[in-house]
Structure prediction request, 236 residues.
Amino acid sequence: MHPSDFFVCVAHNRRGNIISELRVNDRIRVPEVRLVGPSGEQVGIVRVNDALHLAEEANLDLVEVAPNAKPPVAKLMDYGKYKYEQAQKAREARRNQVNTQIKEIRIGLKIDQHDYETKLKAMMKFLDAGDKVKVQLKFRGREQSRPEMGLHLMRRIAEDAAENGVVESAPRVDGRSMVMVVAPIRRKSQAKSDQRRRREAQRDAERAAAQQAKREAKAAAAEKNEEDAAGQQEGA
Prediction:
C-alpha cells in the first residue's frame, strides 16, 4: 500500500463506520512520522517537532492518519474542516437509509362524514411525513356480501388522498376485511427533506466560518506576539 493511501483507510473502521477522533498536533507521541502534505504530496520521514513546525507555519494541523504504520503516517490538514466533512457524509448516509413505516387506518363501511374526515386527515398527515398507510375496511354481518361497496369507499379514499399519496397495493379482500396500501408521493416528502437539508447546511456553514475566524484570530495574535518579541529584542 502506498503511504498516501493510509489516509483513506484509517477514516473508517472494519465495519465501515467513520472514526471520530484521531491524534492531532501535540497528542502525537512518536519521535518521527512519514509526512504527507496537504495536497497528498510525499514529504518523507521527518521528526515530529519539525512536522509540527511546518503545520504551524501553514496554519494547519498535524493529524496522525495511520498510527500503526512504521513510522506512523501524519498529514497536514485543516482538522476542523475534515471533521465537518465527515459529519456531513455521516448525516447524508443516515438520510439515505430507508425509514419508511406503515401506519394503519381502520374504517367501517357505514362510516359517517365526520369520522371519515378525521380518518382522512390522519392519513394525510402520515403520508406527508413519508409513511405508508394501510387502510383496513372491516365488513360486518351481511356487508361481506357487498364487496363493491367496499371498493367504492376505497376508491373515494384514494381520490381524496391523491394530493399526498398513491395506491401501492390495490384493495383486496382479506377475510372479513378489505385492505389497501397507500404510499407517500416521493416528491412531496423529498421537498421537505431538501428544505431540512438546506437549513442544516446553513447552520454547519456558519459554524465552520466561526471556527475559521477563530483560527485566523489566533494566528494573527501569535504573529503579533512574535513581532512584539522581536521588537523588544531589537530595542535591547
Summary: Confidence is low (pLDDT under 50) at residues 1-20. Residues 186-235 form the longest helix (50 residues).
